[in-house]
Records
---
Amino acid sequence: MYRFMLNNSLAATSALIRNDHIYAADGKECNIHVFDLCGNFSSRICVTRAYSRLRYNEGECNFTALGCGCGNRIYYIDTSFNELGYTQLSTDCLQLRAVGALTDISTANMADGNFIVAAFERAVYLFGYDGKQIREICRADGCETITDFLVFGAEKYVIGTRSNDVSVITVSDNGEKQSVIVDSRLSLRLLFASGSNVFGLFGHGYIYNRILPIYSNGSILRRQDF
């Protein structure tokens, strides 16, 4: 488990672990906050805009991000946190009232190429880097809202959903699904992968942030284990 707190008293909306450091964004300020793995503040990196979602793409050695208030535009950022460009998702063929707002983005390295995975409140879609929709991946059940979605291996993905104030994390491995309910004292903010393991960024008491393991060695951890 990793713990850290932003020194601007804001809640972290994204965090990732890379090169023995934690990089966190708050979605409000144009900064990336850097911590060591003990949660000690290291530095602050000034960036072009406030990012509400930030992910590292191991296959491409860069980051993808969502800008706060930037709609369906996905930004690409190098390892020095300079913006390289963006993709505007073409949602003309989507019934946006039916699928809801964009909640999460990531990239997927597949046998037939690299793609963008975009999660909306009610459905998840695969897009090309030209922003054109390719196919639907999955849909929310019942009154669920999709909050997080990440492909982290061949035929593997993890999804976070919320319904009636209850958050559930589900890992699908070749169609076999394992789920766990998030402790009601924690707020799920982001799911991310490191190799074949999955971690979650959780908030506790708004300003307190925890990075906890979710999936390891082919099994999802029980709630009391994280």
---
Amino acid sequence: MFRTSSICALLACLVSLAGLASPACAIDLTITGTCPGTITMTISGGPANETVPVLEARSAGSFVIPGGYLCTGTRLGLSSEGLRVRVVFQTDDFGYASFTTRSPGLVCGKYYQAITAHGTCSTSNVARMPVR
């Protein structure tokens, strides 16, 4: 069975090959693993072949990207408290990327992540770091 994000990624690839504009599909961000320990962040349904930053904040919220930055006016599902770039992914031809890292106990359940794709300014769901 296909997930919606997988179908969107396939559609985006086909549309790209045809030389048409990419369709707007939701980006799915998942975080799996144990905290503290090894976690994996996975993006699916993202824009194909694009550099995509994972933003991190201390809480969920509705921060709006201010003027002078890429994607001005885009509303994130994150607050401005502690907002920073956690990691930057490079998506593949299907809008997929994955990153595995060690996560210290200090961040368990305390940080939230979301994505804003610079090329399309589309955003992902908000994912929370695993709880101990």
---
Amino acid sequence: MVLTVAKLTLPLVFADTGTNAELRQAVARDLQMVFGHLDGYEVVSAGGVPPVMVKGHPITPTKLINFTGAGRYFPKVIDGEIGYVGNFDGREALLITDKVIAAYREAMERRRAHPAAYNEIGHFINDLNLLATKPINDTRQMFVLDPAMASASSQLEQINPQVFAQQFGGQQYRAPSLLEIVDGAQISDRYKGRLVAKLYAQTKDGLKDHMPPIIFDQGRWKLLIVFHPT
């Protein structure tokens, strides 16, 4: 398993935390999706980071690679944990730390608990990407309106298929990382136990995360119109 970014390819080595093949493959696929679109990187000192135990051997990070480029968005839970490189079996490898593994293990547990939601998110993204040629007729069903945003109800009622396509079409959407599909309690206690996720849009300026969050509601993903406190 490798991560390839901007013509740099590094094998992945995992800390000794009992990972299985399913988890390792999920981590590899997700990291490639998160970072693979970036077009550059910079190498800096690892700064005295403690060793990572790999197959019973301590591997000391020798450098830190910061991936760069337009749309540098990735899950906050692994911010500061991805990019450490060390020498393993005679070659440089990207070290997947205990914290990263723990985050993905928790994400996989959520996926196993909510298979329908994870199966549907690809369909939702595909529907958004096809808006230019395949408008969505029942646009009101594309939204969940937070009670604190009740004043926006009349505005939503005015969004017909053409307006929806104009507002949300013309962009290429990307599914969130596994680590960004989380319990709704992270937004508000009223959404506890329901899955919410980030939605990314690819624009001419790169990958953007300016879209509303999405929520799995009544068997489908919808845009969650919610007030975000500053």
---
Amino acid sequence: MIDYIKIEDMYGRSIDSDPESIYLSKLRNSVNALKNMDTNNNLLYLMSMDEPRAGQMAAYKNIQNYLDSEEPGVKMITTSNLRDWDLSKEAYDIANTIYNHPKRFLYETRPNRVLVDIYPLQGTVEWNNGTSRRSAQRRIDKMVHYFYCRLAKDVEAYNLTNTELYHVPQTFGILKSTGVGLTTSPQET
């Protein structure tokens, strides 16, 4: 009977098991080069891979742990991936029926900082109809406020006192509709 399989690439194996890893050496050199260029102490964070997926969590945690121990003034920041955040799966235990990617990310990586990066104003948005389920405000409430509050509760539940959450507001739009799935700006009233 097999009860555990670990799949990893050379990069993951190297940073997981070798403190003198060539990849950690390259990271150290990059951090030092950035710090040397930052004569005004403006460097606050290092952006990790955008929206790490399940297979990248161990590497994320290893790099963050390395930075925390070797470069304590340099913190990593990432955006949270929402894909599959409410995916249902078969399970015998009701508590384990929902796969929650952001919650898993918090649990496995214990990140320093997370950017909540959601774009609610896409697809078919009804701009001036507050009662529609597709109204701009309802989409913001459902996708942004709900997710941020849920993530904040998960941070608290896991006692991640050093994890900071930041919201990334959607500051772009689409001015011209080119087909299904695109948003046009609201009509002037």
